[in-house]
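Per your request, structure below.
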């Protein structure tokens, strides 16, 4: 069924762009350059928020105004050639708003992957060590170094090797699918403590520049480790002179009910990487770290022609103002509670819903064939997202087994709008579960 906005969809001609590179709903039209993504009548509602870039909302007036004013001043100078106020003011604010009261510096670049690349360069320059430890189910981007750090093989890594070396991978605190078949809290955070074993068996600690982690896995399925996990992990890093890099590209900017998920875990990363909602819809990413670490690379070692574009910086300054003036963090937590209530109910009703999890407004359900075996319900997940799409709700999946449905709805969405979206998701679950039951009875 297609109706309203969907009925007018004109698919962009695949002759002009590598459509096959994406696995998304075809929701862009020539005729509608400014799609309403918050569910006005006859338009699709999006639970994806531009894949987590629109935490403060779509096309907020304050952001548009700030960008417009900058547009009237200048669009580009290249900050390495002619520094400008917007970049420097934004760096100062990022240094203030990120966890840790120590002196910090911030570098701006264009994309999340580029920021992670730079975080790795900076960690290596500072420690003079080569190795990086990353996690199973991690996602850090699609450039070569970030693919080396990313875990999921298809569709991200397969066919694109070789990748840069000196990257080692250890299990994450994915309690629903614990790699060690242990249970929290009786496990005593074995997976975090196991880092010391990795230093003995896999790569010597004096060779390791940094451990990099998403405080809550994004593409890996919105996995939020137990509250004391990162404290143990980061303390172990520091015991061995290893830096801790937090990839907050998806978990940052209010999504988890704190400005950064690191705060929810009570940690102060040595380097914190942001992107997505930082730019409020314009491309921008940041690497914020302890001043002495950020200063380690030599002159000209970091940078890029368009890095920290003036328009993107203007947008980001307005994003930070919005966080100051609106209680978006409380909204994120309310959104999380609302999702949890509905999700727990679905879990009781349908064995397909194996796990309901998240932190603040970073929420997801993991779908399984049976709650006992936990075999991933990948096909059913596809059917559910398709049903949602056909009924006016854009959802996106996640997880190594592509069996997680995640919520990245803008934090300004109202309770009613969120309920409307969850109603569609609920009827999709009912539809797919009923069909499954009917087929099972026939067999
Ligand atoms: C946690 C995380 N790291 C890195 C990236 C890569 O960011 P970008 O797509 O801007 O390169 C993403 C993108 O989804 C992400 O979620």
């Amino acid at each position: 069924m297609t109706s309203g906005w969907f009925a007018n969809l004109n698919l962009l001609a695949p002759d002009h762009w590598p459509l096959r590179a994406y696995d998304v709903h075809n929701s862009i039209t020539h005729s509608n350059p400014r799609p309403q993504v918050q569910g006005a009548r006859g338009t699709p509602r999006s639970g994806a928020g531009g894949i987590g870039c629109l935490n403060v909302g779509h096309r907020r007036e304050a952001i548009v105004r700030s960008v417009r004013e900058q547009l009237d001043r200048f669009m580009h100078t290249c900050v390495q050639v002619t520094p400008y106020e917007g970049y420097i003011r934004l760096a100062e604010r990022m240094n203030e708003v990120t966890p840790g009261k120590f002196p910090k510096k911030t570098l701006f670049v264009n994309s999340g992957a580029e920021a992670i690349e730079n975080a790795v360069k900076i960690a290596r320059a500072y420690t003079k060590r080569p190795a990086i430890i990353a996690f199973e189910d991690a996602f850090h981007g699609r450039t070569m170094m970030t693919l080396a750090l990313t875990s999921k093989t298809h569709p991200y890594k397969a066919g694109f090797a070789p990748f840069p070396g000196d990257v080692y991978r250890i299990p994450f605190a994915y309690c629903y699918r614990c790699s060690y078949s242990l249970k929290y809290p009786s496990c005593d955070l074995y997976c975090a403590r196991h880092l010391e074993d990795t230093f003995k068996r896999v790569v010597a600690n004096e060779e390791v520049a940094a451990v990099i982690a998403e405080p809550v896995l994004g593409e890996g399925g919105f996995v939020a480790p137990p509250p004391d996990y990162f404290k143990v992990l980061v303390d172990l890093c520091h015991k061995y002179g290893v830096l801790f890099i937090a990839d907050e590209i998806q978990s940052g900017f209010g999504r988890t009910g704190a400005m950064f998920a690191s705060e929810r875990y009570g940690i102060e990363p040595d380097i914190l990487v942001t992107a997505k909602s930082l730019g409020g819809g314009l491309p921008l990413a940041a690497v914020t770290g302890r001043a002495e670490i950020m200063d380690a690379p030599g002159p000209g070692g970091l940078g890029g022609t368009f890095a920290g574009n003036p328009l993107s910086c203007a947008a980001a300054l307005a994003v930070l103002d919005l966080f100051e003036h609106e209680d978006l963090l409380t909204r994120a937590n309310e959104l999380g509670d609302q999702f949890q209530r509905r999700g727990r109910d679905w879990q009781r009703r349908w064995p397909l819903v194996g796990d309901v999890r998240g932190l603040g407004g970073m929420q997801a359900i993991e779908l399984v064939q049976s709650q006992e075996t936990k075999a991933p319900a990948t096909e059913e997940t596809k059917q559910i997202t398709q049903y949602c799409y056909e009924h006016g709700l854009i959802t996106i999946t996640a997880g190594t087994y592509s069996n997680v449905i995640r919520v990245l709805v803008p934090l300004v969405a109202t309770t009613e709008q969120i309920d409307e979206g969850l109603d569609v998701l609920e009827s999709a679950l009912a539809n797919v579960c009923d069909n499954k039951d009917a087929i099972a009875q026939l067999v």
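The chain has a mean pLDDT of 91.

Regards,
D.
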